[in-house]
Amino acid sequence: MPSEFSSDKDNATRTPTSFGERVRLCRDLAGIGQQALASKVGVSLTTIQNYEGGQYPKGEIAVSLAGALGCTLDWLLAGRGQVFDPTRTTIEELTCESPCDAPLSRVRATAPLTPVIEATSPQFIECMDCQLTMVPMVEARLSAGTGSFETGESVERRYAFRSDWINTKGQPSSMVLMRVAGDSMEPHIFNNDTVLIDQSQTKPRAGSLFAVGVEDVVYIKMVDTLPGKIVLKSYNEAYAPLEIDTRGDLADGIRIIGRAVWIGRELY
């Protein structure tokens, strides 16, 4: 069982250097899914997936793609110049109003736009009136019930959260995003939901959600404690509480990875 679930810092914070990375970053900042982007551009979902894999668009499609993403064509295709057109008078400003919202919701604003990716650290992005903190999505897959667990720890992508919000939730430098697999936490957490885990918070708190490693499986569960035991509880009543004797043979195989501080869901 891996001893750490944090990601490689260099991979998590580097500036996008490939066309596919630039497409993904702009789409994430716009807060739209691949299917929504495909509809805006007028292409198929597979085509968008190919673009994010590195395939370049042709002709007018490239112009439409840049327009849908809200970035300049020069930066999107070649990584040159400003990310956004400073002469535009209508922009989409990134916000994160509450943990119940998606990481990035969109509002309209009317003002000249300055380049957004100008920061003292690649972990942060400066926008017009706020700072965004980038959190890596790691490949480790949380099991909620009978789900799977992937041991890979490489970074898939990064997602932006308002710094003033995420700082109230814990230690952003210790946070990662992971996917949930399984149905044991329904109706509150569903298969393929995204959970924000703060790995600096490992002390059990009754009623709180934690990512807990038990041998080679990672569970997202409510954690409670009894003398000499850790109790993992599910929202789904079809799953009985799992009591683990912390003084028995499994004690060395148990690790509280971190507390879940936010849950997100993509609508299909």
Molecular structure report:
The chain starts with 8 loop residues before the first helix and ends with a strand. It contains 7 helices and 12 strands. The chain has helices at residues 9-13, 19-30, 34-41, 45-52, 59-69, 73-78, 163-166, and strands at 91-95, 105-109, 124-126, 131-143, 155-162, 175-181, 194-198, 209-214, 217-226, 229-233, 242-245, 254-264. The chain has a domain at 136-264: Ribbon (Umud Fragment, subunit A). The strands form 2 sheets. Strands 3, 4, 5, 6, 7, 8, 9, 10, 11 and 12 form a 10-stranded mixed beta sheet that branches. Strands 1-2 form a two-stranded antiparallel sheet. With 268 residues, the chain is of the alpha+beta class. Mean pLDDT is 71; it is low at 1-14, 87-122 and 143-154. The longest helix is centred in the N-terminal third of the chain and has 12 residues, at 19-30. Helix content is 20%, strand content 31%.
Question: What is this structure, in a nutshell?
Answer:
The protein is α+β, with helices and mostly antiparallel strands.
List keywords for this structure.
268 residues; Umud Fragment, subunit A; disordered N terminus
